[in-house]
Automatic annotation (TrEMBL):
GO biological process: one example: transmembrane transport
The keyword Membrane belongs to this UniProt entry's keyword annotation: yes
Keywords for this protein: Cell membrane, Membrane, Transmembrane, Transmembrane helix, Transport
Subcellular location: Cell membrane
Protein name: ABC transporter permease
CDD domains xrefs: TM_PBP2
Membrane topology type: Multi-pass membrane protein
SUPFAM superfamilies in the cross-refs: MetI-like
Amino acid sequence: MNRALILLRRRLVGSVFVLLVVIIGTFLLLELAPGDAVDAYIVSTGGDAGMIELLRHRWGLDQSELTRLAHYLWALLHLDLGQSVTFSRPIRDVILERLPTTLILMGSATALSFGLGSALGIYAGARPGSFRDRFLSVGSLALYAIPGFWFGLVLIVIFAVDLRWLPIGGIESIASTKTGLDRAADIASHLVLPVSALGFIYLALYLRMMRAGMAEAWRQDFVLAARARGISRRRIVLTHVARNALLPLVTMLGLQSAQMLGGSVVIESVFAVPGLGRLAQEAVAARDTPLLLGIILTSAVLVILINLLVDIAYALLDPRVGASEAGA
């Protein structure tokens, strides 16, 4: 546990610099993009030169880039993300409304991809070179090659339009008065298709990694020794081979968190799920730079927290990692 705490402290110190780089880099990149929130507002509603000047002053766009960056960093020190131009509300409130939906979507998709992918990888790697091994390997490669948005549209056509088994999109029924377990069941039915579209793509990756890790573990000396002692194949697979092949998957779980968060932008748009991904799309369309900065900052914090948990889990699973960090 002490090794995990030392590792956590080192990672937290490094995370502060990562967030600072993300904030400054994102702010400068958005400033280099042509147009701003006033241009988007005038295009959609119209206005004269006087209104343009008034809006630029009201939203602080008449100040220099460095001045706005300094004001933004000072506000962040007070946990103030600013005001959304699009919603005319505090950005923190807007993000907190959408964040739970994205967390549910990401958590469910991660559990599906990691759990089922690992199980199928163990099933395939238990007998390398067999028919089931080759079938699952080819199937996972084909699944990984499918674009997420196309896979989501196919699921909608089959299960929502043709068969009418599941809702087309959204997070729950419109104007629903359901509460308790009925509401939870309604939300779950709406999440089946987006979670499947997001999770099955990464399921293929975990399956192939687990299968490859088990294929390598079968050639290790400790596995050969276990087979020589007459230990059953089932016990060898679960106790020795799968356990050692699981460690790279834990690392990949942290690395894939950023990609899954990025994939949620597409999936939420396809299924009209009101999460951070769709909010980011709305912020880009309205050139709402403060809101987009808040979304990116929140996403960066999520990815860093997930990787912190993965590092701690890896240090607990493999004591050599924590020992090396403690001695550094």
